[in-house]
Amino acid sequence: MSRIDDALATTRAEGRAALIPYITAGYPSIAATESVLAALPDAGADIIEVGIPYSDPIADGPVIAGAMHQALEQGVTVDAAMSVIERVRSHSDVPMVAMVSQSIVHRRGGTTFLQNLADVGTDGVVIPDADLNALDSMADTLEALDLACALLIAPTTPPARMVELAQRCRGFVYLLARTGLTGTRSELPDLSERVESLRACTTLPIAAGFGISTAEQVRQATESCDAAIVGSALVNFMGESDDPVAAAVTMVESLATGIHRS
């Protein structure tokens, strides 16, 4: 069982949902990224999503796009992002999933890149712009490496497409709470009907993201979902602080209070 499967099985056994904070590798610095990855499990993170900086973010709003731009300006490469994961893995069992563009996966050799991710201790990938044909060609490798692969299902995803995406996921399914780009929002839509439809075509845990930014929104999302993903709000809070590591810990501790418990 992978670390992601294990983490989600543990939270389920404990009668609660999981919290998945997102950070951008290299923002505001590589040193901060390494420290945050090491500190967040004790703050309440069950899994951590690590964004690999990319010059043309697919679905990211201004906060995460800006963080990626700054990381790239500071010389943060794909290899640098993987190196920080490897360093953290040497002393931490926290499950880490890389959010990475299909363009990067393809450019770095597809299955070869997946092997590289596994070698440094990454437990899975989130591919927001996944090409299903490309995914099918990597399916055996994902299974052999026991890597999770979470694909994005939006409110506008047609039912047939939803089934196709869900069947190709491993580990968990990424349910977009809303359409549009990532970013903080004042309200969260009711996800219960969409979750019910998705559970009809997959037994995998469902993690909701996009626009979840407060403990109350975490509570709302995890009343029906198995996990909540928080990205823009956390990245923004870190960027505004003189001590981004302490800021990340404080915010994740707060978000964890909203986790729904059955």
Question: How would you describe what is shown here?
Answer:
The protein is an alpha/beta fold and 262 residues long. The chain is built from 12 helices and 9 strands. It has a 9-stranded parallel β-sheet with strand order 5-4-3-2-1-9-8-7-6. It is globular, with a radius of gyration of 17 Å. The model has no long low-confidence stretch (mean pLDDT 93).
Largest sheet: 9 strands, parallel
- Going by helix content, strand content and strand pairing, the class is alpha/beta
Strands of the widest sheet, in order across it, are: 5-4-3-2-1-9-8-7-6
Straight-line N-to-C gap: 24 Å
Q: What is the succession of H and E elements? A: HEHEHHEHHEHEEHEHEHEHH
User: Can you give the helix content as a percent range?
Assistant: 40-55%
Radius of gyration over alpha carbons?
A: 17 Å
Could you say how many structural domains there are in total?
1
- CATH class, anyone? Alpha Beta
Number of helices: 12
Mean pLDDT: 93
In CATH, the homologous superfamily goes by the name: Aldolase class I
Low-pLDDT segments:
none
Residues in β-strands, percent: 5-15%
CATH topology: TIM Barrel
**What characteristic shape results from the CA principal axes?**
globular
What is the total tally of β strands?
Answer: 9
